[in-house]
Design a protein that fits this description.
It is a single chain. This protein has about 350 residues and is mainly β. The protein has one domain. The chain contains two helices and 13 strands, in the order H-H-E-E-E-E-E-E-E-E-E-E-E-E-E. The strands form two sheets. It has an eight-stranded antiparallel barrel. The protein has a two-stranded antiparallel sheet with strand order 11-12. The two termini are about 45 Å apart.
Length: about 350
């Protein structure tokens, strides 16, 4: 008969062995059973449900923390939206951008920042303008009223912006793949650019001592459909903060689980995203300048080539209205990282 000491010892051994009996070991089984091909973004819960068909304890590419670096390229429709009645918000133009990125991921959470350059080219149609000059005296001494009519005017500007993005987002997993969304702000500053104005002009004269309107008389300075073109300096847009929204799909180049006999190439985490984005300026970036819309000298008022004009957003007329930057388009992002070498805790002698 065992005495009391033997009974207590056997009981303690049984209790201590319980955790060992509860541990799960993954055998090396048939190699066909080692496959998660096509299973993207599987989580630790997914692994738990499939442990009988796996070697070792495998983790998702989307679990834990990851530090990734990459590059993005974007392009689309872009415009300077304004409330100024003389300027139309269409047709606008386009923009293209390139960014160097750093991204931190923790499970499904995303934080992204970096530095980028965006080139923007915009066309702004301008409403027709009529300017009257009364009590004029022509070269022959006759008094008249001079009318300038400007039409078909388009103000163009191009600028290069520097950007600093600060975006936050999250992954969402579905039956057809891995989606993501990003939202946040980026600092935007235009540090280079130029402007150009193209239009047509017609002048006519109304003589009180004569009946009718005088037109198309070059010797009197009355000309019709004269093409005018002016090039100007950079549009001095103010410092801007823009809101950013983005949604898209991510493809990763590691579709299945890895075993633990990895080579350096197996440790490369590479991801490609295709997304649609929208950027909209929060601040009014209308330049704080006081240039005239149209300006000429009285002594050369008949001579169209001497007429000066500035980009519409550089004029005194624009200062009472707001101007905001906007872009809509597609963005391609490539991210990569070198994952730390993994170590299997519960493995067979072949490191499975």
């Amino acid at each position: 008969m065992p005495d009391l000491r033997h009974i207590i010892l056997l009981t303690l051994c049984a209790i201590l062995c319980l955790p060992v009996a509860a541990q799960r070991r993954y055998s090396t089984g048939d190699k066909v059973e080692y496959s998660l091909e096509g299973q993207r973004g599987f989580t630790t819960k997914d692994v738990e449900n499939k442990t009988d068909k796996l070697f070792g304890t495998h983790a998702s590419l989307y679990s834990g923390s990851h530090h990734l670096f990459g590059v993005s390229a974007e392009g689309g429709w872009s415009n300077l939206i304004t409330t100024m009645p003389q300027a139309s918000n269409t047709p606008g133009g386009g923009s293209v951008g390139l960014h160097l990125l750093y991204e931190f991921q923790y499970s499904g959470f995303i934080f992204q920042t970096g530095l980028g350059l965006v080139y923007q080219r915009i066309a702004t149609p301008i409403a027709d303008t009529v300017i009257y000059h009364e009590h004029m005296i022509d070269p022959y001494g006759a008094a008249f009223t001079l009318k300038h009519y400007f039409y078909d005017r388009t103000d163009r500007c191009q600028q290069l912006h520097g950007q600093l993005p600060l975006y936050f987002g999250k992954y969402f997993f579905g039956s057809v793949g891995i989606g993501y969304f990003l939202a946040g702000l980026h600092v935007n500053y235009a540090f280079w650019g130029n402007t150009k104005q193209t239009l047509r002009g017609t002048t006519t004269g109304m003589y009180e001592q004569y009946i009718g309107i005088w037109e198309e008389m070059d010797n009197h300075g009355f000309r019709k459909d004269v093409p005018i073109e002016r090039e100007g300096e950079q549009l001095k847009l103010k410092f801007d903060i823009m809101a950013h929204g983005e949604i898209g799909y991510e493809y990763n180049f590691q579709q299945g689980a890895k075993d633990y006999r990895v080579s350096p190439s197996d440790r490369l985490d590479a991801r490609l995203r295709v997304g649609a984005f929208i950027d909209f300026g929060i601040l009014n970036i209308c330049p704080n300048t006081d240039k005239p819309f149209y300006e000429t000298q009285e002594e050369t008022i008949f001579d169209f080539p001497t007429y000066r004009m500035e980009h519409v957003f550089s004029t005194t007329d624009a200062r009472k209205y707001w101007v905001r930057n906007m872009s809509v388009g597609l963005r391609l992002t490539f991210l990569f990282a070198l994952d730390p070498e993994e170590r299997c805790i519960l493995c067979d002698p072949w490191k499975h």
